[in-house]
């Protein structure tokens, strides 16, 4: 059966049929998915009951895997999963649900803010691939925003203004928005801000997009308060309903999104009583988007 993709949103998002992610992919299938990502930026695969090993094998078809180190406050000895997989569940090491006041849970609540994965790294992520191993009865949807369409909708004056701006991204910025401000010295060092261009150009299609995230807490050479106000305005523009698709998870869905072209956020669910076990593999991006501060 050949791969087919049906568009779900006027601007982006495709639903894929004709593929079994448990099996090795033919070159034509890999090419079809890559081309679909360039066009739709988000692809949804239903009924993919895969193992961690199968998810990793599928991911490697599209590039080099980013290790999930430096993106959380979970100590290495407390990890449920290997470093090639980011644990986006509400579960501790022995599959017990986090207590409400668990520091790891409070840190992860910022995933409910709009963001782009790994924008806080010098080399931000390319694709993220998220597999649903357990879903709550209510809530826990993921929303995606098309940052290409948001850029296209800017007025000419704003488009000229954002063209050369460079932002500073850090996990401390996004967590600080929710009042999580107590970091160890080691964590502060790990989460040192990095610079990213505010406007990116896709290497294949040439389309421009806004590169926003709750991790962005400053604009180079701007006063902090002015920068945050400006970035908030841009984020509100980019996440208008016309640019947003809501994915309601089914068990064994796998969703791929392009972090260079989208933002996303998870919505609230009863995470102190219901399990949401989501496992993400992430691909390393094309390279730095802006020159970093020396030192």
Mind explaining what this structure looks like?
- With 295 residues, the protein is of the alpha+beta class.
- The chain has a single domain, classed as Clavaminate synthase-like (Double-stranded beta-helix).
- Helix content is 23%, strand content 23%.
- The chain has eight helices and 15 strands.
Would you give the CATH topology? Double-stranded beta-helix
For the biggest β-sheet, the strand order reads: 1-2-3-13-5-15-4
* Cα-based radius of gyration, to the nearest Å: 18 Å
Mean pLDDT: 96
Poorly predicted residue ranges: none
Helix content: 10-25%
| Secondary structural class | alpha+beta
Number of helices: 8
Summarize the structure.
The chain has 295 residues and is of the alpha+beta class. It contains eight helices and 15 strands. The mean pLDDT is 96.
């Amino acid at each position: 059966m050949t791969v087919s993709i049906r568009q779900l949103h006027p601007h982006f998002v495709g639903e894929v049929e004709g593929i079994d992610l448990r099996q090795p992919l033919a070159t034509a299938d890999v090419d079809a998915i890559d081309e679909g990502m360039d066009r739709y930026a988000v692809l949804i695969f239903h009924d993919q009951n895969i193992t961690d090993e199968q998810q990793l094998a599928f991911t490697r078809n599209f590039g080099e895997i980013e290790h999930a180190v430096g993106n959380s406050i979970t100590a290495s000895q407390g990890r449920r999963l290997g470093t090639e997989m980011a644990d986006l569940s509400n579960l501790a090491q022995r599959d017990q649900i986090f207590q409400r006041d668990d520091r790891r849970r409070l840190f992860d609540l910022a995933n409910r803010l709009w963001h782009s994965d790994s924008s806080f790294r010098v080399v931000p992520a390319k694709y993220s691939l998220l597999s649903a191993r357990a879903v709550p009865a209510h809530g826990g949807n993921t929303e995606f925003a098309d940052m290409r369409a948001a850029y296209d909708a800017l007025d000419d004056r704003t488009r000229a203004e954002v063209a050369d701006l460079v932002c500073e991204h850090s996990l401390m910025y996004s967590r600080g928005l929710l009042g999580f401000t107590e970091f160890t010295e080691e964590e502060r060092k790990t989460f040192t801000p990095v610079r990213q261009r505010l406007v990116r150009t896709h290497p294949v299609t040439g389309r421009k997009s806004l590169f926003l995230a709750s991790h962005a807490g400053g604009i180079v050479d701007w006063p902090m308060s002015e920068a945050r106000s400006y970035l908030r305005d841009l984020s509100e523009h980019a996440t208008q309903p016309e640019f947003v698709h809501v994915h309601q998870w089914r068990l064994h869905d796998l969703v791929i999104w392009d972090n260079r072209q989208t933002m996303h956020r998870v919505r609230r669910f009863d995470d102190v009583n219901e399990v949401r076990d989501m496992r993400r593999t992430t691909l390393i991006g094309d390279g730095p988007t802006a020159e970093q501060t020396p030192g």
